[in-house]
């Protein structure tokens, strides 16, 4: 009798967990569904080629935002990926235990947890105010700060996965440490490191808050990196909070583009990694 | 005894070591610099308002009155609401993934949950404005008012925008974090523990309850704290649905303001130095809270599952 | 041609733990010398001191003399030294990011050899010496990880030989392999000793009896006895050796 009660309770709990999972997935399909439905209908050639049209007049596009995002993500990657990978190499290959490495790991943790708007504040006070204007450079810098701890963490994990025996094999052959690291360890961990980088890129592409007062946004093409520049997430935000219906539709379209980019990068990363572990 | 020739590092060795060392130091310096920069910019406001900054209820830039309590209130309420919803569901998802699902199903669902985490905040906000808020305004909030209107939490005009919307959206956003860390922590529970429980004749749920959860307890708590940290700092989605009004009202239907939201909205409007400084100080409060929370959370997670990781499976 | 090795008063520490307590040993060139003993007796540490790999671990210390062909190993740059002393590890460790060919020539390529002909010639020669050429000659650009365990170990041997060392250190090279693969490795070792001085650490006494010309018995960081294999196994001088051989411990 008691056993039956226990069995029943077991069934019920298992059911609850399944329900929890389904509940968790509802918003995912809800959001993706709406983005695809509303975004698709507003997506057209003009969207990709045209600049925004004032006050929600039809025919505008988000060309400058898309390009702006690409530019700033590139800047962020050019800074963030080397700094991140080199730091990770330091932590795994040269110094796993000293106070410095503890400090650096702590800093990485802290940087991972910083709300991205704080990064925006810091770059604003340190760079924008000093330069006297908003700029793509400032935006790229802010994004790179977000990228660095992500790259450090994923790269470090991948380097740790390389068995120590491989390094020893290199040393035992009379290969110097630097060559062992660069030509044996890094290539072995390469796929995982690239995956981590792709995921970090996906993450910063969607960041809005740190750009709000560094890159600011721009209705036109930025003529140099020293000017405010449009970015896709920022433009989506501005359109979504505007009163114009046309702009709302463009916000959905922009979201579709942004989500597609993020999902593609994630899928790619998963596949690249999958083929490695097989 | 002859002197031993140590590993004479070649030029290449020395270069790489120096380069990586510099990068590592720069990361440490970056953190310190950011903290100092925040503090320095906030100093005028700190000096002027002192402790009353945190307790002050009035935020009026025109009259140069800056009290941050409304933002702290809005941030805390929405984040706690998000936690109350997301923690049990996230844990449930984690249990499903780790203890119930077969590997094929597990990969797919894990991927989907990761997708949930990958959606940018601004897209959540967009969906929030045009889908969630209308639904709350027309269906949920009137319903709650009808059935539970005697509780102050559910009184007031249903606007859709407000703390309930903020809390719900945050719940969806932090759920993947809680789920992912819980999965990782539960996976670190040694199988022998599970087998011991099963060998005693426990049902699956009893096994989870007796063997897995107690062992993973502190790690799960850490995951929840990390989720809280994320909720506290979340900017775009919240600012798009919370109503952006610096009021302190007991009802969940009421519009409110979060720390991140006020910074996002007013930073570029800050026309004079004290205003800017006050906004930075609000940010500093957020920075310090999330920092402490994150450090504690990581320690908890590491105590169960060695090493911080990212994804789910 | 293999070279002679002299070890005098060798002491080694791992942290505060002294793993070698004064080893004196003469290793005869062109012979296979087996190092046997129970777990933790210091045999791996001993062998890793010879090519100065022991120092690559943090918290280690070494004292004493190791003379390789008249020159102290401590007077040489360790990186250079390791080109004349090759090492094969317990678990085969081909480089995962490289093909079979690239693995074999890794030691040469990464130290600057560029001539394609020389590299290919050396690769073939080393693979033949490792008795692997016939099995892989048609798939040299396949990943090193695509081989079986025994083949991978022979690949590692080929890789070590390609650098043309005079001494070959083998740390339980067959312990992770099945009996047939083990037989291949043992046969290979017998052939190699013509041109190399080989030190092989093994926990398998039958293996030592099969392939080693002389055997050294280590216990608790000390060299208890060292002599021709037949002597050690049929007529050991030290009681501790006898106890180990007859299986009373270890």
In short:
The complex is a heterotrimer of chains A (278), B (313) and C (250). With 278 residues, chain A is mainly alpha-helical.
Description:
The complex is a heterotrimer of chains A (278), B (313) and C (250). Chain A has 278 residues and is an all-alpha fold. Chain A has 2 domains: 41 residues; 230 residues, Orthogonal Bundle (MetI-like fold). Chain A is built from 11 helices and no strands. In chain A, helix 1 packs across helix 11, helix 3 packs antiparallel against helix 8 and helix 3 crosses helix 10. Chain B is an all-alpha fold and 313 residues long. Chain B has a single domain, classed as MetI-like fold, CATH 1.10.3720.10. Chain B contains 11 helices and 2 strands. Chain B has a two-stranded antiparallel sheet with strand order 1-2. In chain B, strand 1 and strand 2 form a beta hairpin. In chain B, helix 1 crosses helix 11. The longest helix of chain B is centred in the first third of the chain and has 39 residues. With 250 residues, chain C is of the alpha/beta class. Chain C has one domain: Rossmann fold, CATH 3.40.50. In chain C, the strands form 2 sheets. Chain C has a 6-stranded mixed sheet, sandwiched between helices. A 4-stranded antiparallel sheet of chain C has the order 2-1-4-5, with helices on one face. In chain C, a hairpin with a 2-residue loop joins strand 4 and strand 5. In chain C, helix 4 packs across helix 6. Chain C starts with a strand and ends in a 5-residue tail after the last helix. At the A-B interface, helix 1, helix 3, helix 4, helix 5 and helix 6 of A face helix 1, helix 3, helix 4, helix 5 and helix 6 of B.
